[in-house]
């Protein structure tokens, strides 16, 4: 059982990592409540799944711009100070969400604008925060640290949407936004307690050349490229969250509490997957394990789209959630272990674009396809196409499934100088 259950050594050996984990849990709880509130507010204003998907389009576009522009910044400055600045800005944006709800503005374009601003800043904040774990933890505990980070995210997914549904039913969406504003206090405190975090191995220049250097590294490092493309395939082609309001209305009468359960089911699968993630540190081929998870994710979404009834609907979402969280754990492990620190900001920024921006684009695709067909058909088609994408990556990028971290040196440790010194010149005595 100790090997099966999640490895908690990272929170025991590092007080800084422990504080970051607690802060992420609380701020993630508030963030999920805002995500729920925005989607429901847009759907109540328009009654359209495509309009809900538009939230994903705004978020995805902003994530791409912010991630690509923010990567060199993360590798050029003290990352602790950067996170303090971006977290403070995100708290202000959450306050603006609350203000528009209290004022009763009900303007869909204002909501789209605030979502875009939120994800533009988050595209810098998220990758910068991800550079902390490899600096705070021993190399062998990085996969376990990734699993703990995913556990906190999915705990917030489980608790946030149902609580948001209760608050929305009782007093309106403005209370959901207020909780998000308050939740930033813990995250700011955790970042404030960190030591300075300048990049190791030299600082990048904030320029297009630095962006290109990061992209060239990803393109040449086939295992990193394969990991990002695998997640891109699973999210852009199959992300189903924009379909939840319509499926909730079709199958369960549109009850806000049931809508919260749909999102919570994916998170419950995430908690189950991370709770039993003890073996992740002992899996020698994380890339291959990631590809297996992508297959299970696609099958789970096909089932979600085709079945009826609350139990089966939630059951397939739990299966998809288990596969999703373990795929992210393996992807994070691959990228953190295969990338040197001075390139970690730019690589993490690209990972954030894939992990945060691509799902939003997938939600837009799902919403448009759901409006053209049905919400259930859109979910099933997405799961099927993600299986095709996973198969193509396995064929054309075999480096991902063959990758073994134990066979490679730690990229953060400089290689010894193996140059042969020139022979000394002997001057004959006079």
Describe the structure.
Helix content is 76%, strand content 0%. It has a single domain, classed as MFS general substrate transporter like domains (Growth Hormone, Chain: A), CATH 1.20.1250.20. Residues 412-430 have low confidence and may be disordered. The chain contains 17 helices and no strands. The protein has helices at residues 9-13, 15-46, 49-74, 79-103, 108-130, 132-136, 142-171, 174-192, 208-220, 222-236, 244-252, 256-275, 286-306, 310-338, 344-372, 375-396, 398-402. Helix 7 runs antiparallel to helix 14 (310-338). The chain is an all-alpha fold. The longest helix is centred in the N-terminal third of the chain and has 32 residues, at 15-46.
CATH class: Mainly Alpha
The oligomeric status of these chains comes to single chain
Number of E-state strands = 0
User: What is the architecture at the second tier of CATH?
Assistant: Up-down Bundle
Number of helical regions: 17
> If you compute it from the alpha carbons, what radius of gyration comes out, rounded to the nearest whole angstrom?
22 Å
- Helicity range: over 70%
N/C terminus separation: 79 Å
Please state the overall shape, judged from the principal axes of the Cα atoms.
globular
Order of secondary-structure elements: HHHHHHHHHHHHHHHHH
Name the structural class: mainly alpha
Which residues form runs of ≥5 with pLDDT under 50?
A: 412-430
Give the amount of beta strand, in percent: under 5%
The largest β sheet comes out as: none
CATH topology: Growth Hormone, Chain: A
| Total tally of structural domains | 1
CATH homologous superfamily heading: MFS general substrate transporter like domains
- Give the averaged pLDDT, no decimals: 84
């Amino acid at each position: 059982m100790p090997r099966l259950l999640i490895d908690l050594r990272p929170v025991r050996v590092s007080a800084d990592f422990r504080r970051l984990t607690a802060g992420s849990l609380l701020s993630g709880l508030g963030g999920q409540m805002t995500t729920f509130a925005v989607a429901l507010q847009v759907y109540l204003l328009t009654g359209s799944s495509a309009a809900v998907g538009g939230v994903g389009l705004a978020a995805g576009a902003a994530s791409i711009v912010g991630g690509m522009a923010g990567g060199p910044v993360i590798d050029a400055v003290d990352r602790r100070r950067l996170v303090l600045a971006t977290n403070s800005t995100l708290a202000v944006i959450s306050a603006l969400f609350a203000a528009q709800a209290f004022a009763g503005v009900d303007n869909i374009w204002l909501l789209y604008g605030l979502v875009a601003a939120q994800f533009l800043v988050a595209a810098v904040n998220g990758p910068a925060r991800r550079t902390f774990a490899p600096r705070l933890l021993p190399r062998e505990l990085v996969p376990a640290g990734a699993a703990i980070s995913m556990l906190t995210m999915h705990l917030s997914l489980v608790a946030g949407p149902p609580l948001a549904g209760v608050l929305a039913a009782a007093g309106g969406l403005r209370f959901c936004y207020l909780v998000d504003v308050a939740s930033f206090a813990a995250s700011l405190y955790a970042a404030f307690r960190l030591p300075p975090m300048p990049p190791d191995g030299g600082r990048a220049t904030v320029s297009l050349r630095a962006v290109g250097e990061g992209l060239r590294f990803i393109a040449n490092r086939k295992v990193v490229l394969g990991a990002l493309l695998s997640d891109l395939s699973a999210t852009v082609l199959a992300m189903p969250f924009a379909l939840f309001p319509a499926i909730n209305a079709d199958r369960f009468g549109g009850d806000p509490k049931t809508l919260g359960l749909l999102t919570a089911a994916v998170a419950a699968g995430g908690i189950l997957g991370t709770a039993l993630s003890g073996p992740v540190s002992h899996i020698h081929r994380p890339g291959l394990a990631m590809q297996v998870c992508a297959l299970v994710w696609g099958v789970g979404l096909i089932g979600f789209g085709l079945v009826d009834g609350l139990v089966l609907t939630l059951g397939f979402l739990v299966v998809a959630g288990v596969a999703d969280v373990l795929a992210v754990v393996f992807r994070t492990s691959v990228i953190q272990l295969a990338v040197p620190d001075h390139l970690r900001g730019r690589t993490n920024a690209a990972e954030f674009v894939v992990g945060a921006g691509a799902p939003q684009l997938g939600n837009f695709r799902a919403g448009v396809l759901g409006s053209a067909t049905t919400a259930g058909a859109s979910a099933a088609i997405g799961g099927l196409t993600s299986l095709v994408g996973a198969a193509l990556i396995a064929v054309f990028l075999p480096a991902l499934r063959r990758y073994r971290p134990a066979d490679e040196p730690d990229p953060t440790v400089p290689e010894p100088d193996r140059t042969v010194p020139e022979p000394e010149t002997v001057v004959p005595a006079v």
